[in-house]
Amino acid sequence: MGGSGGYGRFPSGERLAALERQAKEALGSAAQPSRRSVFLSFASEDLNLVNLLRGQAQNENSELDFIDRSLRVPFDSDRAEYIRRGIRERIRQASVTICVVTDSTVHSKWVDWEIRESLRMGKGVVAMHPGAEKPSSVPRALIEHNIPIVPWHQSDLMVAIDLAASNRERQP
Fold it and tell me: What is the pTM of this model?
């Protein structure tokens, strides 16, 4: 009879403990996705709506969870290049741009440029509409780049944010 019964194939107690730690760390990091940094692009007429979105992202009971890199107060300048530089820096800090799409968005002086600049910088872009129906007209950049517009449902929005960020992270 003799033989070891196969016990030699199992790791030692010390090695087993190290493997368990590694597995727990891997599971822990997989279970908790990193918070995304987002830039919110919107028409100034939609500020109250955007502040509601920001509030939801700060609420611990909300499914929305992101770091807001967008402007809180518009630049106090008439110089377009100065404004572009400031916005560009905020977009650079973000991994995803969320475009809040309402009937006012298409008339914004800056939203289309912010979408194009985000894409030029390799950022993911998510377009989100707050109403039951999508707006009748949207910024041209969304159409040209075939960016779908998702409804404002917290879980759907988070999935779209993560997908946009991970798609951009995989691109060279």
Answer: 0.72
